[in-house]
Here is the input.
Amino acid sequence: MHKLIIAAAALVAGLSMAPAAQAAEAGAHVERQAWSFGGIFGTYDTNQLQRGFQVFREVCSSCHGAHLLAFRNLMEEGGPEFSEAQVRALAAEYEVADATADGGRRAAVPADRWPSPFASDQDARDANGGSLPPDFSVLAKARGVKDPFPTWVFNYFTAYQEGGPDYIHALLNGYHDEVPEDAPHGSDGAPFQLPDGKHYNDYFPGHAIGMGPPLSDGVVEYAEAENGTTVPHTLEQYSTDVAAFMMWMAEPHLVSRKQTGFAVLIFLVLFAGLMYGTKRKLWSGIEH
Amino acid sequence: MRSRKLSPAAHWTSPSDSAKRTPTDGPLEGGWLTILLMWSKVGAGSVICASYGETDLSTQAEHSTTNRRDFLFVATGAVGAVGAAAVVWPLINQLNPDASTLALASIQYDVSPIAEGQSVTIMWRGLPVFVRHRTPKEIEEAKAVPLSELKDPETDEQRTKPGHEEWLIMIANCTHLGCIPVGQSGDFDGWFCPCHGSHYDSAGRIRRGPAPKNLVVPPYEFLSDTLVQIG
Amino acid sequence: MSEHSTYVPGNAVEKWLDDRLPVVRFAKEHLMDFPTPKNLNYWWTFGAILVMCLGVQIVTGIILAMHYTPNVALAFDSVEHIRRNVSGGRVIQATHAVGASMFFVALYIHMFRGLFYGSYKAPREILWILGVVIFLLTTATAFMGYILPWGQMSFWGATVISNIFSAIPLVGDSIKQLVLGGFAVGNPTLNRFFSLHYLLPFIIAAVVALHIWALHVPGNNNPVGVEVKDSRDTVPFHPYYTMKDLFAMVVFMIPFAWFVFFAPDILGHPDNYIMANPQVTPAHIVPEWYLLPFYTILRAIDFNILFIDSKLGGVIAMGGAMLCLLIVPWLDTSKVRAGTFRPMFKWFYALFVINFIALMYLGAQEAAEPYTTLAKVCTAYYFLYFLVILPVLSRIETPKPLPTSISESVLGKAHA
Here is the structure.
């Protein structure tokens, strides 16, 4: 058996060589947040996803698309879980292109996908000072945090997959009104020069980001919960909620995937135990 | 490529020559059954137990450790079979319509823009569907036909919803060979299929020609006076 | 009729079949009765694990192809469609993606086992060469598969690797255009890579059949490296090794499932969740981890060698690193197979393993000091090991005494 352990160790050593290099280099250290969906037991918080959706809808979606998000996803299990009536009413507020409809456009239905705010990428650039607001569909998985050795080795064992939302949360909280004093200097030693129309952000690669600070305290009015409590109307809260929503949008089947995973792993451990017993019994009479 | 070249079994004497417990002895027979069952991908525990029962009686009664050993083999085989079945199912299930297809399995359609005497063709589950706003004359004609004259007897009431008799909603494929009939033509003030000459009346019932059945009415209901949900 | 076969047709139907197509006899001889050394350790289970990996990739791959669209405008979204909409699609897709990594884990362990126990030595040279062919085909298949999601790493990986062809003197650019079906990676490239990615696994399966055929002619090597002498040295493949291999497969499935269900993206790269964009290069291009050692060797040659420029030099080095595996049987001429009995070889081998892992690590680092120098050192040791150390050791090393037979070594272990 000890050889098997060596094999397992070799396997882990091999895997740990996987690209440690993740996106978002040259930024400040991104703090890990306590996500409800983090770790192997994590699940989405329905209320948080609903709030995050509200932030997305009221703020982000005026510039950012989410072309893989269907309205029907919003009522699916494991997501924000709005009611069918809510989703139908929501969809009806949006128009989508449909070649068979009068005038080529019609009101959206739950089966439709979230309409993009701009007709084309070029339109989006023109409206945003040359910067293209990225589509949100899988953005939470398209961003990450580069962890130093040996943290990224541990990530394989903790199944840390939340670098994207961590980065998004950090980015939304990382704006400065003016270039801070500790901004990196150029290679020639000159102080940091922020191009016109750009904004300084601690976490954005290169620090000069086209998007102005999209969220600030009080911009979104959250509804009161049924028990009369309300979450704070703060940037911190908004950014956490919208990052969680984006993670759900990028990985909508996370909860069911992990649930299946537990069944599979328990099965495999049990089956491995039985197979080991079977193998031992078979070999018990053989010198080997 | 028969076994002379392939088989290096020169050193392998027949199992029965060996003084040791031989590979084809009882417990190993059990192992063989186990693997067979394991890969048979059928999680029928009873079948497994039954086969083991036979083996047990016939070959291994004298071994004191037999039962425990056999239990282990049976348990392993059964668990393996369950696992195999659990793997196979999702591999088959993925063939089913996906979520984006299912989302369109039921559609809602607002019929209010369709004026009397007009039809539109809409798509539902990949099929064209006629939505016809019938004239009183058409409704009357349809109701007047005695069932005895019909090849596929159905009353007009059976083909429409009570209170919404002016709406006729049917899958637009001829029940003969699937062409799309032309509306408001043919000899019965209904539809005429140009492919092979089937005539349908103003309730979409087959009246003459090779088609065996009336045009199919999909499952639908009126959610309000003007909003219809098909599927 | 084989004189070794223990198969006796049970009834008239079996006899009829056996006279015409002896598949049952064949299966019994090669899958059940095949005499296998009884001292194989768990490193020998990786062959069966690899068969399982190939099966998993083929089955999940065929399923993915039912839902995938090989078109530059649609490929990225179609993969997301699989993840989001197809029943069980998230897990099937993750199994295929993680499965590629697990395949290489098993493949490398299998190869390093062969290198340690001298499994490439006579009379198993063809067996080893077929294995190297499988490795090369698998690498090509994995590389082409990585293009299919049409993310940023897919696109730029394809761009970087296809530029390897342009290093070839005179005809390089023509070959590159021939491979890509255009002047850059584009829709024709994606389509042909999809076609070939679907084809190659079946060719791999065919070479695997040859590999097993070549294995069954001399029979298995074993941890002491002395040939089988008589029936006391062996056990029939079934049920002894079928059950042992199955046990190992199930254990192997545990980390496999861990990644599939709990961290399906951790072995990939976030940039591949951005659709391919020919106008923007990701800040840091890295191939998948299993290609990193060879990628490091490619990058390590950043200097011209005589009339060979650095680009061609890198390509030659990378190709050479893979191809020199083919001639290992004639580089290591030591009569003793197993590294256990070779006191000097053991240490150079251990260093080679560490060196390989170091090459892997360096491939993921940026091209800056001290990594570039380390990469050169590690590359040098890689070639030194095969081209100098193995031939020299064969001459100067005095191996430890070998047991006279497998059963003797087994008994010795039991009494020790």
User: Anything to note?
Assistant: Chain C has one domain: 34-415. The first helix of chain C runs from residue 12 to 20.
